[in-house]
Write a structure and sequence with these properties.
Elements lengths: L8 H10 L3 E9 L3 E7 L4 E8 L4 H13 L12 E3 L2 E7 L12 H18 L28 H4 L8 H17 L3 E5 L7 E4 L2 E5 L5 E5 H11 L11 H15 L5 H25 L4 H17 L2
Antiparallel strand pairs: 1-2, 2-3, 3-5, 4-5, 6-9, 7-8
Helix pairs in contact: 3-6, 3-7, 5-8, 5-9, 6-7, 6-8, 8-9
């Protein structure tokens, strides 16, 4: 990708904060954030991330830095968060390589649960300002009217395309989570296969630290237990695999969830899937999450007592 295609501010930002301008662009991605893989003039490879400044980035990058310092498998931030106009920007080391671990079996679920348990344990004594508002796919704690958080680019689309069972599932899951009143902790809220890389049996990198959230532990674990298998279009893992994930997590952390926490975990596994099913319907996408939600919602809601 030629340098002429990068934002005007990027070369000067790199010179000011990394000591050198980019010589070429290795890759560029744009989803929730803009991500640029750059090779600087001295040959150093770095990744620069920019996202709309919603107040979350400073806490997310600080927590990522703490885990990297301790040797956790994640990229080490190279700069603090810097404001550029309406953007929050930071750079981190380039951590290439590794493979995606595909599959949604119970055995695969346990491997992901082991990593998630380690991640959550490392975050227990990381003190940062809560990264609020939470990412939209786990923002069941919003105070907007209706079941969904207010998101202009979604709300302006035709809501009649969203199946009634998706809305009903989201309403019931949200009501159950909020009724529990559990304390919030810091955790990773986008724990999908596509955001991890492995070297054989060992995890090599956990990415997407922009997606840290401030929610109850059981809810974060439940969300991860449903999302871990997503290596392409988001989906919902089989119920048996989510159950294996939840059990393995508790075993590794050395504590058993209370009955209420178990229910919250099952409810929270539904909310991201409902969010994704809504997205699919609004955009006319293949209903990957929608079909999985249709098949599993009744049993998951039963387990959630919702």
């Amino acid at each position: 990708m030629p340098l002429v295609d990068v934002p005007d501010w990027l070369p000067v930002w790199c010179l000011d904060h990394l000591g050198g301008e980019p010589a070429n662009v290795q890759f560029a991605l744009q989803q929730t954030s803009m991500v640029f893989g750059l090779r600087l003039v001295d040959g150093t490879d770095v990744v620069v991330k920019a996202r709309a400044d919603d107040g979350r980035a400073v806490s997310c990058v600080a927590a990522q830095a703490r885990l990297a310092e301790r040797g956790f498998s994640c990229a080490r931030p190279l700069t603090p968060v810097v404001g550029v106009g309406s953007l929050s920007v930071h750079a981190e080391e380039f951590r290439p390589g590794g493979e995606v671990l595909h599959g949604d079996s119970a055995d695969v679920a346990v491997r992901y649960a082991e990593v998630f348990a380690r991640l959550m344990a490392e975050l227990t004594d990381v003190t940062v300002t809560p990264p609020l508002p939470n990412p939209r796919w786990v923002r069941w704690d919003h105070t907007d009217s209706g079941v969904w958080p207010a998101i202009d680019f979604l709300d302006e689309l035709d809501q009649s395309t969203v199946p009634a069972y998706v809305v009903d599932t989201a309403e019931r899951a949200r009501e159950r989570i909020l009724a529990a009143g559990l304390p919030c902790v810091l955790g990773h809220a986008d724990f999908e296969a596509q955001n991890l890389r492995w070297h054989g049996q060992e995890v090599w990198a956990v990415h997407d630290w922009d997606s840290l959230a401030w929610q109850p532990e059981a809810a974060l674990v439940g969300a991860a237990s449903g999302a871990f298998a997503s290596s392409g279009p988001p989906t919902l893992a089989p119920i048996e695999s989510s159950e294996a994930f939840l059990m393995a997590y508790q075993d590794i952390r050395g504590r058993v969830f209370s009955a209420a926490e178990q229910e919250i975990a099952w409810a929270a596994g539904l909310w991201p899937a409902a969010h994704n099913a809504r997205w699919e319907a609004l955009h006319g996408d293949t209903p990957v999450s929608g079909n999985a939600l249709r098949e599993q919602a009744a049993e998951r809601l039963r387990r959630a007592n919702a």
